[in-house]
Amino acid sequence: MEPESRPCFRFAPSPNGWLHLGHALSAILNFEMARAARGRFLLRIEDIDATRTREDYVEGIIADLKWLGLSWEEPVRRQSRFMADYLAAQERLQARGLLYPCFCSRTDIARAVEAREHESGAPWPRDPDGAPLYPGTCRALGSAGLARAAAGEDCAWRLDSPRALEAAGEIAWTEVDEQGEAHEVRAEPAAWGDVVLARKDIGTSYHIAVVIDDAAQGVTHVVRGRDLYHATSMHRLLQILLDLPAPLYTHHRLVLDANGEKLSKSLKSTALRELRAEGATPDDVRELAGLDLLDVDAERP
Phi and psi (nearest 5°) for 200? Predict the structure, then answer.
């Protein structure tokens, strides 16, 4: 059997809350772009975080998307069933000396950053999400840190950013805008510093899981919100280090609330199920999300 060659798009929500208008925008864009390209559309459930995942949220995701008129290939990929794949990727990076164990708590990191700011008199650098960069405390442990991890001490695993950047060389990705125009973007993974690639509580991370999943499912076009634009630098770095293919990327606009904040589950933004209960129709949702103003049928790379 020949490998699938059609363009492949995916919508990949996390079941830690109800879908809102921002999710509807992303899901419908992926679905319609796949249809315009005569490609495939996949639904993936990103449920690696068992501390926040709920099955009623999974059921709600499927109900909302079906109400919107979307359909997808079966079976739906559930990340929680592929933890061994993510662990294997992490072990490949560890074998190359690109990960190191980190035993610091959030309090430890906050204190270290505060001390360095006090010493330098200048703000400590932060990552694109606004969190202070890890100061590298455990990177200096070397073999002693590896021995502690091998002995079973609880730890996270961080990317040794300087080594990883040296191994990868120049990095870029192809960004396709909402009008279908493609251009090259220079990736800047150094902005994330020594990012955690395996959390203590769940054993992996979004960054690892998403690049493994996209490669495993043959995803050719990643269409997601602009809030993940900077994460693409880290994803391209991991794709290079793990010898994975590079999809095309589109980072679409976000749906904002009356205060100019992006809609989010944490802010309890109005859920699609609430709009449906109030009598809204799928066409109403498209209008509220601004989809009636977009042309997704234009030719794309």
Answer: -60, -40
CA gap 119, 100 in Å, rounded? 26
Q: 8-293 has which fold?
A: Rossmann fold (3.40.50)
Say what the pLDDT of residue 139 is: 95
Domain segments of the chain: what residues? Answer: 8-293
Q: Name residue 156's beta-bridge partners.
A: 102
**Cβ-Cβ contacts under 8 Å for 151 (sequence gap 6 or more):** none
Asked if residues 298 and 180 have their Cβ atoms less than 8 Å apart, the reply is yes
What confidence tens digit (pLDDT) does each residue in 82-119 have?
999 999 999 999 999 999 999 999 999 999 999 999 99
- Per DSSP bridges, beta strands 77-78 and 40-45 are parallel
Q: Tens digits of per-residue pLDDT, 187-234?
A: 999 999 999 999 999 999 999 999 999 999 999 999 999 999 999 999
Residue 180 near residue 300 (C-beta atoms within 8 A): yes
Tokens coding 140: 């200096």
pTM of the model: 0.92
Residues paired with residue 114 on neighbouring β-strands, in sequence order: none
By C-alpha distance, which of 286, 214, 158 is closest to 42? 214
Q: Dump strand ranges (E) for 40-181.
A: 40-45, 77-78, 99-102, 156-159, 172-176
Amino acid at 131: A
Question: Tell me, what DSSP letter sits at residue 49?
Answer: -
Q: What is the dihedral of CA 7, 13, 14, 18, to 10 degrees?
A: -170
Number of neighbouring beta carbons within 10 Å of residue 141: 16
Q: Give the integer Cα–Cα distance in Å for 45 and 61.
A: 9
Report d(CA 235, CA 231) in Å as an integer: 6
